[in-house]
Amino acid sequence: MSRYTNSDITRYTPSCFCFILDQSSSMAEPFGERDGEAPVTKAEAVALALNNLLRNLILSCSKSDGIRDYFEVAVIGYGAEVGSAWQGALRGRELVPISQVAEQVLMLEERPVSLGDGTTETIQAPVWITPQAHGSTTMCTALHLAHDILAFWTAKNPSSHPPVIVHITDGEATDGDPAPYLEALANTGTGNGRSTLFNVHLSSRRAAQPLSFPDQSAPLHDPYAKLLFDKASYLTPYMRTVAWENGLPLTEQARAFVLNADPSLLVLALEIGTRPGRLW
Asked: What dihedral angle (degrees, nearest 10) is formed by the CA atoms of 100, 106, 107, 112?
């Protein structure tokens, strides 16, 4: 019997991450605060979280023989334009192997990091995505593009671990009803199962109560929030394990959905969503 399960990711059965980012003008609104500084915008928070995540993915794929291509990564933005959100040498690319992501850093920026003992040090942090906030919420067009990209990937990798799709938005679509596009995305997959679709809604109100990975729609009174919940996938058992490790005891019916996320909940959602299985 093989030691691998459908939760395992190997170089021969890789997985795919597809990040779909709202980059419309409303993403310039405040989102949380930095100590002693002006509030960070939602666009800045998303870029920071995604850049940190990409760095961590690269570290998780780094072995003694180099960076193993356990993942291909797509980053799609929608706002003034819809398309690949990669910048620099990766501009215009759709699916990028993680080893090439590591090789093509846009720039390095100084960032303070806590050492856990009350002190900090400054590191040179890699940046691939910069904050963008222009145009309208052309969500349907972006979801359709993501579907086309994933249909290509799953046809090329029918025996691989199913993709994980992380959709981060702060508003409603301005180009139609996103329901059929979200449903089509959630129905993509491989012979090992369907893709996991995360819907992460960012809060525009400081007082808004966050809701993380609910198992029912009863607390949701807004029709748009209910739509995002209904179309989100169930968390996989492995993802629920990661959630437990982060202090979130979830039920088997927990959905990959976050409402009114603040910066810390955004980071946690990305942490859970990008741990689809064991790496071999």
From this structure: -80
pLDDT at site 73 = 97
Q: What is the DSSP letter of 27?
A: G
Q: What is the DSSP letter of 253?
A: T
What pLDDT, on a 0 to 100 scale, did the predictor assign at position 203? 77
How far apart, in whole angstroms, are the C-alpha atoms of residue 210 and residue 104? 35
Extended strands (E) in the chain: 8-9, 15-22, 62-63, 66-67, 71-78, 82-84, 96-97, 107-114, 120-127, 164-169, 189-190, 193-194, 196-202, 211-212, 257-261, 278-279
Closest CA to 27 of 101, 123, 131, 127: 131
User: Cα separation of 101 and 135, whole Å?
Assistant: 27
Residue 4: its pLDDT value, please?
36
Q: What is the amino acid identity at position 40? A: V
SS (H, E, C) 97-163: EHHHHHHCCCEEEEEEEECCCCCEEEEEEEECCCCCCCCCCCHHHHHHHHHHHHHHHHHHCCCCCCC
Report the alpha-carbon distance of residue 90 to residue 104 in Å, rounded. 7
Q: By the 8 A CB rule, do 177 and 60 touch?
A: no
Interval 14-20 mean pLDDT: 95
pTM (whole model) above 0.90? yes
Q: Which single residue is written with the structure tokens 């369907």?
A: 194
What phi, psi does 37 have (nearest 5°)? -130, 175
pLDDT at 276: 74
Helix (H, G, I), strand (E, B) or coil at 56: helix
Q: Which residues of 150-185 are buried (b: 16+ CB within 10 A; e: fewer)?
A: beebbeebeebbbbbbbbbbbbebebeebeebbebb
